[in-house]
Amino acid sequence: MSEAARSDGWSRAFAPASVGNIGVGFDLLGFSIDGPRDVVSVRRSGGDGVRILRIEGDVPGARDLPLEAEANTAGRALLELRQAIGAGFGFDVVIEKGIALGSGLGGSAASCVAALVAANALLERPLSRDELYRFALDGESVSSGSRHGDNVAPMLLGGVVMALEDRMIPLPVPDWLWSVVVHPDQVLHTRRAREVLQAPYSLHDAVAQSRHLALFLTGLQREDRRLIGEGLRDVLVEPRRSSLIPGFDAVKAAALDSGALGASISGAGPSVFAWFESRDLADAAGHAMQQAFANAGFASRCYLSPVAGPRSESLPATGVSA
Amino acid sequence: MSEAARSDGWSRAFAPASVGNIGVGFDLLGFSIDGPRDVVSVRRSGGDGVRILRIEGDVPGARDLPLEAEANTAGRALLELRQAIGAGFGFDVVIEKGIALGSGLGGSAASCVAALVAANALLERPLSRDELYRFALDGESVSSGSRHGDNVAPMLLGGVVMALEDRMIPLPVPDWLWSVVVHPDQVLHTRRAREVLQAPYSLHDAVAQSRHLALFLTGLQREDRRLIGEGLRDVLVEPRRSSLIPGFDAVKAAALDSGALGASISGAGPSVFAWFESRDLADAAGHAMQQAFANAGFASRCYLSPVAGPRSESLPATGVSA
User: What number does CATH give the domain B3-170?
Assistant: First the structure.
């Protein structure tokens, strides 16, 4: 049991927001950002189940989250963890939502990652991040309906991560890479965002996407901004989803006009992210991107972060009460 | 003018066969092999054009190649080179075909690459390989109808190369990687091989292909045989073309049963290639793959080569006559 958890039985951890997927790596690549975060407190209970005691936070969607453990991403992840390790105890959980649901920033994923990292500190033999991954996939699937790791993986490891079915592969990230994520006050039609992807794709576009992905990965590996920029172009998913986000074209143009290496939709949207080769460029671009959303009639929040963003970590467990 | 070319006015060069594409990198990735090769001799002529004096070699298809420079991959490449550098002379060309046409081993591409490398040695200011690339694309397009560099790029640089529209990016290749290429005595229906690719692709397959490509590139970078093996799986093109190659399934199975990291179609086929983590494994697998083709009724040739295959080079220009 970790130092943080010892005082009053509670263990507390945060998980950062993340952008998954990164345009060209649909269902494959994500990165974490130093922006909004979910915080989850967990303590052992005498029971044999998982109880969600409260969900706090006034971000959009927080009040609609289920308290039933099976149906909650954090609850489900802890149920799977319990079962897998044969724990002789249950968990009580308090969730503080900081990431808006339906923002495209991994709000559902963050709760289960933070819960796992908090609970892990309560185990006699804590698991590695790699071992926690499958429970995070279990949890996240409650919300998305399928096992996609492009949000939970960067939350667990930080930075840019390749999320596979059974493991995570962290990728090298140049320290001069900065991101901007702008989250507009829009309600995204998530079902529609999935539906538009179903019609099939041409060989031409599939090959172009492969070429871009190869350039992107090689660019990261070689810290080559030209390759990263040439690669960060999603020709499969973005063209079908962009019209679901009012103002997207203008916001992307604002990012590119401000020197972005590339820009695309964060997750299913409506957030938009862009990558830059310095903090200063990113900062200036963030204002321009927000202005473009404002011109389209939408207020927005802007997050500036190194692309090598933080990973989920334990926090001091002060002030938690049942 | 190079030493090799000085004696009698002829400059001579070879280009190796190549596998383009490498399964998962359609129209993007190729590698050269130490196997059959085309040899081209070039000398300056007093005229202002390019004359193909002879095409030698008794490999399949050689006799059907056009002597008209515009319609010949070597001739066309040299015409474009002449024009670009404003040469005050023409070229005479003798082609010795060593790579069968329609084999899937880059036979058309090799003639133009060898011609360019031979002609380049005759220039006052020889060009770099990178500068020769666009002329190779010009030449190869005569045969394929479009500009694809996945054969000419590895012939120009050797090893595994990412072929883009405007440049080549050589990729790192572990020195323990060996390839087997087996070329059966089959006539491939090239038009059909292109036709079957036209129907559109599902999101599921496009995403799986991206995942495999990412694993493949990361595996090469990290010299990780597991990642290379997981990545070397073509779910887009191979499933549609494999039925055009009688015996393919058995040959691929023989490769995998013999320890191949992966196996797929070389080019449009009918050749089949496989990658191995040692020369010994490759050698044994080659026999098994040939046996599988034999069981299907086809004699075959087998080439064993490091994946880091050779690049086109100059040769002594002995014995060439007009």
Answer: 3.30.230.10
